[in-house]
User: Which sequence fits this backbone?
């Protein structure tokens, strides 16, 4: 049985006080599923959230991280700093980082290496643009994103990697991939992983879906055999909606 994960990516929303309020509400929620629940607040709220989450069973993730250990990188945050406030997971390669901050290929591979070196769990995001899907390139695009960011890793490193397929056309648009489209791509991803690393790694690696997951579509998406959970944006900002999504798995 693969680990099921539902993670909330709060993006650039909620200040520290608001983040703590949401955590408070989540702690009062009744999670009936056995999924691992993770929240990813912004950097300024991580330390306070880390304290607030102690003993709650909810994991804490950062939304990004610099690839260097330390140094003259004004405005950046290192793995060592994240460790220092109790962060054990980091989201890397999100499409918003790829689109607005030109993160790709070798840079993401370096970030993954640094995070894993620090014993962190990496939620690695990737996914095609609408134009890629419309031109039938979506499988090739996903395969090369996986290759560039992750396929240099030794087999053993995969125990700390979670994949998150997020078709860019479904993020924040209210337009979700159909459960069949998600399953088709997730099966492809698992096959690609099996070809590169063998079936054991492929069968063990959780593959999340992200892109307009809401309480009313989560059950069907999560019912697909290769969908192991979700990375949730907008709906993760509401405790009731997020809990409903967690409980949909
Ligand atoms: P939405 O759920 O708002 O579409 O965002 C998905 C996402 O980008 C999660 O990382």
Assistant:
């Amino acid at each position: 049985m693969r680990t099921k994960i539902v993670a909330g990516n709060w993006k650039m929303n909620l200040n520290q006080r608001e983040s703590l309020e949401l955590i408070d509400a989540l702690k009062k929620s009744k999670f009936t599923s056995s999924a691992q629940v993770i929240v990813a607040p912004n950097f300024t709220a991580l330390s306070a959230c880390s304290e607030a989450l102690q003993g709650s069973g909810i994991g804490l993730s950062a939304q990004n991280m610099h690839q260097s250990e330390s140094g003259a990188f004004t405005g950046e945050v290192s793995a060592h700093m994240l460790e220092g406030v109790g962060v054990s997971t980091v989201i890397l390669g999100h499409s918003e980082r790829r689109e607005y901050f030109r993160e790709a290929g070798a840079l993401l591979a370096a970030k993954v290496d640094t995070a894993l070196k620090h014993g962190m769990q990496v939620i690695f995001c990737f996914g095609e643009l609408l134009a890629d899907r419309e031109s039938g390139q979506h499988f090739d695009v996903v395969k090369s994103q996986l290759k560039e960011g992750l396929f240099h890793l030794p087999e053993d490193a995969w125990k700390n990697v979670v994949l998150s397929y997020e078709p860019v056309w479904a993020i924040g648009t209210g337009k979700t991939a159909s459960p069949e489209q998600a399953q088709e791509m997730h099966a492809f991803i698992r096959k690609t992983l099996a070809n590169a690393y063998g079936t054991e790694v492929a069968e063990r690696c959780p593959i999340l879906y992200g892109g307009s997951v809401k309480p009313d579509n989560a059950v069907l998406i999560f019912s697909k055999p290769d969908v192991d959970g979700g990375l949730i944006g907008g709906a993760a900002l509401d405790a009731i909606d997020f809990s409903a999504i967690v409980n949909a798995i």
